[in-house]
Design goal:
Blueprint: E1 40-46, E2 53-59, E3 76-82, E4 86-89, E5 95-97, E6 105-111, E7 116-121, E8 126-132, E9 139-140
Antiparallel strand pairs: 1-6, 2-3, 2-9, 3-4, 4-5, 6-7, 7-8
Length: 141
């Protein structure tokens, strides 16, 4: 959006978009306007009634071209929903998550120095999942 606070999925042909080094070529990925190299940060993502979504953070150097393997070992820390009711942390193997109340908003908390990325169901104020790792470069919501 113009205010850089919302995004929606629209089918486009790849040739309609310029190929830049920061553009993801296959998957519809959106990065925030600002990344982090220190500090504690919190934001919320409105997922509404969607049946499929994935959200989290990635390190600056992730591959953006071709097929992605969005796992912590490749620089992605994310949770996802698919088929309307299946939740997982994208680990190897996937970590199934029990979510009692379908979230309309998901809170994401990053503590860069502690290496933590935590996800919360804002709808019922419950914890969803926490990744713990070591960050060595800029990470992007």
């Amino acid at each position: 959006s113009e205010d850089r606070k919302s995004v929606r999925f629209v089918e486009v042909r790849p040739r309609d978009l310029p190929d830049t080094p920061r553009r993801f070529t296959i998957y519809p990925c959106v990065l925030a306007a600002q990344g982090f190299t220190s500090g504690r940060h919190y934001w919320e993502v409105e997922v509404g009634d969607k049946t499929h979504w994935a959200l989290g953070v990635c390190k600056d150097s992730v591959s953006r071209k071709g097929e992605l393997t969005p796992l912590p070992e490749t620089g992605y820390w994310r949770v996802r929903l698919w088929n309307g009711d299946k939740y997982a942390a994208t680990t190897t193997p996937f970590t199934p998550l029990t979510v009692r109340v379908k979230p309309k908003r998901v809170g994401v908390f990053v503590d860069y120095e502690a290496g933590k990325v935590a996800f919360y169901n804002v709808t019922d104020r419950s914890h969803i999942y926490t990744f713990t790792d070591t960050f060595t470069e800029k990470i992007w919501p």
